[in-house]
Specification:
The complex is a heterodimer. By secondary structure, chain A is an alpha/beta fold. Helix content of chain A is 36%, strand content 23%. In chain A, the strands form 2 sheets. Chain A has a 6-stranded mixed sheet with strand order 6-7-8-3-9-10, with helices on both faces. Chain A has a 4-stranded antiparallel sheet with strand order 2-1-4-5, covered by helices on one side. Chain A is globular and about 50 Å long. Chain B is elongated and about 75 Å long. Chain B has 10 helices and no strands. By secondary structure, chain B is mainly α. Classes of the chains: A alpha/beta, B mainly alpha. Chains A and B meet through strand 6, helix 2 and helix 4 of A and helix 7 and helix 8 of B.
């Protein structure tokens, strides 16, 4: 594991309490600490409601840090920024914009010149395999295509870090598997730091270099598991080493999943 | 033929009058009404008064849309704005808007100003409520996506919250459009020296019932036409909803 000084993202003793307008406050995260190195691919794994998305939103700067500290390259997080791209489970594409206009949005906001916007948007649309759908609206696309478009929109502004909130959770099994391979290929071509939130053990083992297993609410880091598999292997699922890792992590997750019921 | 029932109604109208089933003093025949309408059109009375009405209605509605949309979106965006304006909007919304007719006349007299103010005040709240509900339904993930793509908080209001509010805002404006005609004609009937409502009242008092009915038909047609035009415009503007 990378030393804290070399880390790009550090989380130190972060707790977070949800205070709904009605009902009582819920402790979502309890004293969570972790460090993530540049270009590392980390999966945050845990049962639903364990606070893994909350942790992601805190790193993204979407929620205020109440207790503890989160630093990005040494500086405390102060709101969202284009250095940290986000991909949501339900895509969050602007429904009134075409695929091309969605992908261009961030480039517009960054003040990129018009021709350059056009060129980069087209390049990323082609990277995610959406050539021919530039002028389609999100409502005309399948779930997998929507997530490709959302990924292109996020990648187009070239963030150093990619925050992914169960990005393939709303897709059918085949599409999900395909998207996992493609995400891995993209990550190899343009290496970025990735925090990938999921409750799917196989997905976490398939993609991540390191899996952080979280406990049921209140969320804590229960275990950190390093994964050393040949992730370029398209038949990784069939290897005994893969099955072994999945078993190992399943044992860690099972108790928590039962508690979360 | 979607409008066949309308044609049948017109034929029935003509028939019951021609057959003497109702007195012409109560209901002039459709052919007489059309003839009277043609004369009003030829002599310019219809144009002049329709022009006055459309100006008042258009100006009042335009003001209501601009101020109503801005107010609704700001209420959805800033909690203190909601806390302050919310109870006011709630209290004033159910008030019968026609009760404001004497008030606006007191303030601005018998001319265009009082009608424009009345329509503005009466039509603003449905627009506000549409914009408010629409902006409130804006997805958190869309706002966060825009912010992480480099949009400032203010840019998010224009780029994300406003377009998210459009479908419900459009519904609010449709209500306001219908209300515009109601307020326009009733205020012109009561106190005015021009306008279609004024013309209806003037012809009615003079006992020129066929011409009066002609103006009533014109108002009905204008209301229908404005709504269809609006629906078509909205359909084109919100084509992305699919």
């Amino acid at each position: 594991m990378a030393a804290a000084s070399a880390a790009q993202i550090t989380v130190e003793g972060v707790s977070h309490t949800y205070r709904p307008a009605r009902g009582r406050a819920v402790l979502a995260l309890d004293e969570v600490s972790l460090a993530i190195a540049p270009r590392e691919f980390v999966a945050l794994l845990g049962p639903s409601g364990c606070g893994k998305s909350t942790l992601l939103y805190l790193v993204g700067g979407f929620l205020p840090v109440e207790k503890g500290a989160i630093r990005i390259e040494g500086a405390p997080v102060a709101g969202p920024g284009p250095d940290r791209g986000i991909v949501f489970q339900h895509f969050a594409l602007f429904p009134w914009k075409t695929v091309k206009a969605n992908v261009r949005y961030g480039l517009e906001k960054l003040g990129v010149a018009r021709e350059e916007q056009e060129r980069r948007a087209q390049a990323y649309i082609e990277l995610v395999g959406l050539k021919g759908f530039e002028e389609s609206y999100p409502s005309q696309l399948s779930g997998g295509m929507k997530q490709r478009a959302a990924l292109a929109r996020t990648l187009a502004v070239d963030p150093k870090m990619l925050l992914m909130d169960e990005p393939f959770g709303a897709l059918d099994a085949q599409t999900r598997s395909l998207m996992q391979s493609e995400l891995y290929a993209i990550w190899q071509r343009t290496p970025k730091t990735v925090i990938f939130v999921t409750h799917d053990v196989q997905e976490a083992v398939r993609l991540a270099q390191r899996v952080l297993v979280m406990s049921a609410r209140p969320g804590r880091i229960k275990a950190k598991v390093n994964i050393q598999l040949d992730r370029a292997d398209p038949h990784i699922y069939r290897s005994p080493a893969f099955a072994e890792k999945v078993d190992e992590i399943w044992d860690l997750v099972r108790d928590e999943a039962l508690k979360a019921q | 033929m979607k409008y066949l029932p309308l044609v049948l109604l017109a034929l029935a109208w003509e028939a019951i009058v021609q057959l003497g089933l109702v007195s012409r003093d109560v209901l002039p025949s459709l052919s007489d009404v059309l003839k009277a309408g043609w004369i009003l059109l030829r002599e310019g009375d219809l144009w002049k008064n329709a022009g006055a009405s459309l100006y008042r209605g258009g100006a009042g509605l335009a003001l209501a849309i601009v101020f109503g949309a801005v107010l609704g979106i700001l209420m959805a965006w800033w909690r203190w704005m909601d806390a302050f304006m919310g109870p006011l909007v709630e209290a004033l919304y159910p008030m019968p808007k026609s009760a404001l007719i004497p008030v606006t006349v007191l303030w601005l007299g018998f001319g265009d100003g009082s009608k424009i103010l009345l329509i503005f005040l009466g039509c603003m709240l449905p627009v506000t409520i549409g914009a408010y509900n629409g902006a409130r339904s804006c997805e958190q993930a869309l706002v966060w996506s825009a912010r992480s793509l480099g949009a400032s908080r203010l840019a998010v209001l224009w780029d994300v919250v406003l377009p998210s509010a459009l479908p419900e805002l459009a519904t609010g404006i449709r209500t306001a459009l219908a209300l515009t005609f109601v307020l326009l004609v009733s205020s012109e009937l009561i106190v005015a020296r021009a306008g279609l409502g004024y013309l209806i009242g003037f012809l009615g008092e003079g006992g020129v019932y066929d011409a009066m009915f002609a103006v009533v038909l014109v108002v009905a047609f204008l209301g229908f036409f404005a709504d269809r035009l609006y629906q078509r415009l909205v359909g084109r503007l919100l084509a992305w909803r699919a």
